[in-house]
Amino acid sequence: MSSEESKNPNANVQQFFADQWAKALSAFPSVTADVSQKPGVQFDSSKLQALQQDYVQEAAKLWANGLTSPAASQDKRFGAAPWLSNPLAALTASSYLLNAKALTGMADAIQADEKTRQRVRFAVDQWVAAMSPSNYLALNPEAQQKAIETKGESLAKGIQNLLHDMEQGHVSMTDESLFEVGKNVATTEGAVVYENEIFQLIEYKPLTAKVHERPFLLVPPCINKYYILDLQPENSLIRYAVSQGHRTFVVSWRNPDESLGHLTWDDYIEEALIRAIKVVQEIGGTPQINALGFCVGGTMLSAALAVLSARNEHPVASATLLTTLVDFTDTGVLDVFIDESFVQMREAQMGQGGLLKGQELASTFSFLRPNDLVWNYVVGNYLKGETPPPFDLLYWNSDATNLPGPWYAWYLRNMYLENNMVQPGKLSVSGTPLDLGAIDIPVYIYGSREDHIVPITASYAATQVLPGNKRFVMGASGHIAGVINPPAKKKRSHWIREDGALPATHSEWLSGAQELAGSWWTDWSEWLQGHAGKLVPAPKRYGRATKYKAIEDAPGRYVQQKA
């Protein structure tokens, strides 16, 4: 150390963070190269200058606070005592957060079209999440301390966990050994009353002496198992519907294997959606039923209703759409993956046959939230040798489902890439041109405020496409937690406009909406009862004696199939 440096201890710290800034700037092109596909990255110079000034100021604050940033103690990755009591670890965490903030700021300062900016930001977010010092044993004092305290047992257990997860093909998010479908998840009593090669139809045993005359059909997304709607008795939307006096049915999708790799979107609409609607009609002995679609289940339900309307058939009296994309103008973070070259690649791979493996799809969704759904478990499972706690939702999340390649390729092009379903007559399904404007029935539309898969603006966009009497409700939280929010829990909020107005944009709608405590389920239940018809004696048996008899007890075989 020179005499000048010894007189000015700030010089070393300033030089350290000057070097860090230079490294961040030089590393940035390598982080984004595959995304931008350009030899260099152009920045907005004014934003970059402001970023550098902010970086220097934050570094000065870090020095003034004894090389510990308040942000580090507030970040759950670095909040434990070993991080805070170890000066080197505290500095490592604080400088990482400072550099991460600079990198994400640089991503926002890129001069490019919006699609490229989103892709760069996504790539940087992935890189930043992966580079956290908490992810590495040599830099994680919490994992090191546990290894010392357990005399290496935590490391041995971590290796066992790693080998187990490598064998099963995915990172364990919960203790999967504690769950069994039909035993402690998907336990609402019922029976399979119809099946074909694509789906089983489950009817549930009534919980009330009388039921509404119009049966109720739930269509879950085919990219997941249906039992997200029936996890535990206390958070089951299916059981709730049954308890409200609805004769309830659900589509349980088959987990496709290679023998079903030829199935198309038309097959799913004609042989699953429309077939399920007609079977429920026949079993109920009614001219109309009520239906609900969740996520892509809602997209398929909308397509099926458009096909039926074009055929002058109107078997559905009302529809409920939960976190559903109908207008694909705003697809949120998933848009970073979608362009012509990507869709052409998928069409070449599987457009004429084959499977999209369930684990590939599950991994994609997990990396949309890498810190919460990937690295958190890497640290806990492998560095600390912990077994993640039991959590029914995460067990379901890990129970992956394959997709037929032709279905998936068609969906990518016509929905995510070209947004064709909102263009009247642009698409034909089973030889029938689609026009969503012909679906003139009451529709209950729900969106989750913090949904990263179906943005709230995208959920709301359905109100501007469908012509019937509509009710829009926004719930708190995300894609799943916002939907699975039973009233008894008294959690979260929902928003409703009492005047029923549906202006052009979600922001305009929200400006006149009222926040109400608790679940949206009760509002939806009151709405559905208004379309469910009179009360009649509950059926004594499943199905219909003359045609549809119970095949097996719920949850049936299809949901048991693994990807």
Textual characterization of the structure:
- The structure is a single chain.
- By secondary structure, the protein is an alpha/beta fold.
- The protein has 20 helices and 17 strands.
- Strands 15-14-13-12-7-6-4-5-2-1-17 form an 11-stranded mixed beta sheet, with helices on both faces. It has a two-stranded antiparallel sheet with strand order 3-16. Strands 8-9 form a two-stranded antiparallel ribbon.
- Helix 6 packs antiparallel against helix 7 (114-130).
Short description:
With 563 residues, the chain is of the alpha/beta class. It is built from 20 helices and 17 strands.
Search tags:
alpha/beta, two-stranded antiparallel ribbon, 563 residues, 17 strands, single chain, eleven-stranded mixed beta sheet
